[in-house]
Amino acid sequence: MIYGNGIDIQEIRKIQKAQEKRESFAKRILTVNELAIFEKYKGNRKYEFLAGRFSAKEAFSKAYGTGIGKKVGFQDIEILNDSQTGRPEIVKFPGDNKLQAKISISHSGEYVVTEVILEKLTWQTKMKKFLIKQK
Q1: Is the pLDDT of residue 30 over 70?
Q2: 76 annotated binding-site participant
Q3: In CATH terms, is domain 2-134 a member of 3.40.50.970?
Q4: Which of 107, 120, 126, 129 is catalytic?
Q5: Annotated catalytic, 107?
Q6: Which of 85, 93, 104, 116 measures 20 to 30 Å from 3, CA to CA?
Q7: Which member of 27, 62, 98, 128 is catalytic?
Q8: Residue 58, annotated ligand binder?
């Protein structure tokens, strides 16, 4: 059952300017694990990554129904890429024991657009997640 859907679009250049103005910008947006990935990138790819994570976290907060603020902060959400497929996955988020998150991040030219779909977990899905963790 769908709990919420969130979509966000960001201009990569605006995120780049925010980072160039304040180096602490990325530290406010990214978790420690995300920051380690960000620091490995060079040039435009670095800013595409930052804009993608910023946009994805905004989209998550919209799907969750709170927006970024008092209930959900940027550090409450962590997005990492699957080691085998490279697909982005939201690995940490508020309500992760009750919800399942699906994410899409797309870059095109000067923009990044993201979508997050949150689904309520059924007992079958909870059992499947549990069994996967046991492997």
Answers
A1: yes
A2: no
A3: no
A4: 107
A5: yes
A6: 85
A7: 62
A8: yes
